[in-house]
């Protein structure tokens, strides 16, 4: 069994800078083959996390797109206004893409201050990669849902989380609302990841392959 992180702190000296409250849950460890993951995803019958939206037209908002400011790659799909066919603004509802169980909800999240964000990114440039703890901070306020088989979806940069969100959720439930938490610009958008074990959906794939894959797995 692996334990999903239950707390995340960024420390400068001894001062706790970020305090994120999460539900503590265990996710069954699962190492499926790529084909098995795709089958499991299809069986989930997922929808997209914003009502009426389509996948972004902009390849830079897909998984694998370079993120030079933090010496890394994008690990999810961005839903920005103007790129996904529907209006996306602060407060746009975010939907659970399939049935599952809430394993993290940052209800007591406090956004990182700009100077601390800059300090973290300076460290990233010195290291040449983004440590997981920093990446976690950059994702802002988050909700994570476990769908079994090691498949977890992450909904990031939220402005707010639905009241009382915990336990089991059903596809289409409103879990939170679009925001810009964790970002520098605060431009409202949803950053959405599908985690497959230790990897993310789309890792190593071209934009076309990713678009085809999404078409294949989405609920018809
Ligand atoms: Zn993103």
Features:
binds zinc ion; 220 residues; alpha+beta; 20% helix; disordered N terminus; Glucose Permease (Domain IIA); single chain; 4 helices
| Residues in helices, as a percent range | 10-25%
- The rounded Rg comes to 16 Å
Number of helices: 4
- CATH class group: Mainly Beta
Provide the β-strand percentage band: 25-35%
The CATH H-level superfamily is Glucose Permease (Domain IIA)
**What's the CATH architecture?**
Distorted Sandwich
The helix-and-strand class reads alpha+beta
Provide an overview of this structure.
By secondary structure, the protein is of the alpha+beta class. The chain has one domain (2-217): Glucose Permease (Domain IIA) (Distorted Sandwich). Helix content is 20%, strand content 26%. The protein has helices at residues 34-44, 114-127, 132-138, 207-217, and strands at 2-3, 7-8, 11-12, 15-16, 20-21, 26-27, 66-67, 72-73, 77-80, 93-95, 100-105, 143-146, 151-156, 160-161, 168-169, 174-177, 189-196, 199-200. Strands 9, 11, 12, 13, 15, 17 and 18 form a seven-stranded antiparallel β-sheet that branches. A three-stranded antiparallel β-sheet has the order 10-16-14, with no helix packed on it. A two-stranded antiparallel sheet has the order 1-6. A hairpin with a 2-residue loop joins strand 3 and strand 4 (15-16). The protein is globular and about 45 Å long. Zinc ion binds at residues 74, 76, 78, 191.
């Amino acid at each position: 069994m692996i334990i999903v992180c239950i707390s995340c702190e960024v420390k400068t000296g001894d001062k706790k800078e970020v305090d994120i409250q999460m539900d503590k849950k265990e996710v069954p460890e699962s190492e499926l083959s790529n084909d098995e993951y795709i089958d499991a995803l299809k069986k989930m019958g997922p929808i997209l996390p914003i009502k009426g939206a389509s996948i972004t037209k902009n390849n830079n908002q897909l998984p694998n797109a370079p993120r030079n400011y933090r010496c890394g790659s994008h690990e999810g799909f961005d839903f920005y206004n103007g790129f996904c066919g529907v209006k996306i603004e602060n407060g746009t509802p975010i939907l659970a893409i399939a049935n599952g169980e809430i394993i993290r909800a940052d209800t007591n999240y406090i956004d990182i201050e700009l100077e601390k964000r800059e300090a973290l990114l300076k460290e990233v440039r010195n290291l040449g990669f983004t440590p997981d703890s920093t990446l976690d901070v950059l994702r802002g306020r988050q909700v994570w849902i476990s769908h079994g088989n090691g498949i977890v979806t992450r909904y990031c940069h939220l402005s707010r989380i639905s009241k009382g969100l915990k336990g089991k959720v059903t596809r289409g439930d409103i879990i939170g609302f679009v925001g810009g938490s964790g970002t520098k610009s605060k431009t409202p958008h949803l950053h959405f990841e599908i985690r497959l074990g230790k990897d993310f959906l789309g890792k190593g794939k071209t934009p076309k392959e990713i678009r085809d894959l999404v078409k294949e797995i989405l609920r018809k």
